[in-house]
């Protein structure tokens, strides 16, 4: 078993590049470094009486334009160790 970075683009670290083949020249050229675009929001949710901590477990389009004071509708949310794990199917932006 060898150690080191894998050639699969999903396992690259920022700053690493994957050589890409140039079919016209018949040679390989270094690619630009790229990172997988991800985000993970940690939110403090409140209904005025109770507070809950939530984390974006999977990227959700409903949270793209979320601002302080936004209203969210949550249904069938998975909770782990006191934190709500938000996925696209369980969250909807109301306003």
Q: How many structurally independent domains?
A: 2
Mean pLDDT reading: 75
- Helix tally equals 0
Q: Sheet bearing the most strands, described?
A: 4 strands, mixed
Helix content: under 10%
Strand arrangement in the largest pleated sheet: 3-4-7-6
Anisotropy-based shape: elongated
**SSE run:** EEEEEEEE
- Assign the structural class, choosing from mainly alpha, mainly beta, alpha/beta, alpha+beta, or little secondary structure: mainly beta
Tell me briefly what this model is.
By secondary structure, this protein is mostly beta strands. Helix content is 0%, strand content 34%. The strands form three sheets. It has a four-stranded mixed β-sheet with strand order 3-4-7-6, with no helix packed on it. Strands 1-2 form a two-stranded antiparallel ribbon. Strands 5-8 form a two-stranded antiparallel sheet.
Output the keywords.
95 residues; 2 domains; mainly beta; single chain; 0% helix; 34% strand; 4-stranded mixed β-sheet; two-stranded antiparallel ribbon
């Amino acid at each position: 078993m060898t150690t080191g970075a894998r050639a699969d683009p999903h396992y690259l670290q920022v700053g690493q590049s994957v050589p890409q083949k140039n079919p016209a020249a018949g040679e390989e050229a270094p690619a630009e470094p790229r990172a997988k675009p991800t985000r993970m929001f940690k939110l403090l949710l409140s209904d005025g009486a109770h507070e809950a901590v939530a984390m974006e477990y999977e990227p959700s389009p409903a949270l793209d334009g979320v601002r302080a004071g936004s209203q969210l509708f949550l249904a069938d949310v998975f909770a782990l160790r006191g934190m709500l794990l938000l996925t696209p199917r369980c969250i909807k932006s109301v306003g």
